[in-house]
Design a protein that fits this description.
about 210 residues; mainly alpha
Length: about 210
């Protein structure tokens, strides 16, 4: 269903995106710093389960679009590439929050799970991200589009779960290591913006090459 090159590119892009500290990662780190590693891991699990819901919805919606119009699907893919570039530019000029300035109230583990789940489930940016990212690596000529979306989405969620878990473990074990200075925050911002812009350009070119 997937050629080796496409799958490796997808996994590399997914890992790169997963390690970029976004709102979900900051939430996980804040929980870990406040309540320990287990609290961070439970929050990570809730966020990941919500990610699966987003993947399923994206797979069903975009699969229906493919059946209706191959041209429209191609347009969606290029819009997605442009959106990734937009994320990079927006990140570059945004003010990066500092982890040590984020405060959270202690919660039970069940509450942590559902809070992580709800926060990610109703985050429109998460839904838009999957709609922009996954289509770049789906090819209708390779079989069931729905199955491709689900497989790629699950791979991304699993990789993100691993990355987020590492953040939770580190944050729960080393508070000062993750108490960011302004300089570290700036480095992180430039790195994140470069990854988003680079990924948007790369996936756009990748899509063009596949269509030729």
């Amino acid at each position: 269903m997937f050629d080796t090159t496409s799958l490796l590119i997808f996994m590399a892009a997914s890992i790169t995106l997963a390690i970029i500290p976004g709102p979900a990662v900051l939430f996980i780190i804040a929980r870990s710093l406040e309540q320990g590693r287990l609290a961070g891991l439970v929050s990570t699990l809730g966020i990941s389960v919500a990610g699966i819901v987003h993947v399923t919805l994206a797979a069903l919606g975009l699969s229906a679009l493919v059946l209706q119009s191959a041209l429209m699907f191609s347009i969606i893919k290029y819009i997605g590439a442009v959106y990734l570039i937009y994320l990079g530019i927006k990140t570059l000029f945004s003010k990066q929050p500092v982890i040590k300035d984020i405060t959270v109230e202690p919660m039970k583990h069940r509450q942590l799970f559902w809070q992580g789940f709800i926060v990610n489930l109703f985050n429109p940016k998460t839904a838009i991200f999957f709609l922009a990212f996954l289509p770049q690596f789906v090819n209708p000529a390779n079989g069931s589009v729905t199955l491709q979306f689900i497989i790629l989405g699950l791979i991304f969620v699993i990789l993100a779960l691993g990355s987020d878990s590492i953040y939770a473990l580190i944050a729960g074990s080393a508070r000062q290591l993750l108490s960011q200075t302004e300089r570290v925050a700036k480095i992180q911002k430039y790195f994140s913006s470069t990854v988003y812009i680079g990924l948007g350009i790369a996936t756009g070119l990748f899509s063009i090459n596949k269509s030729e």
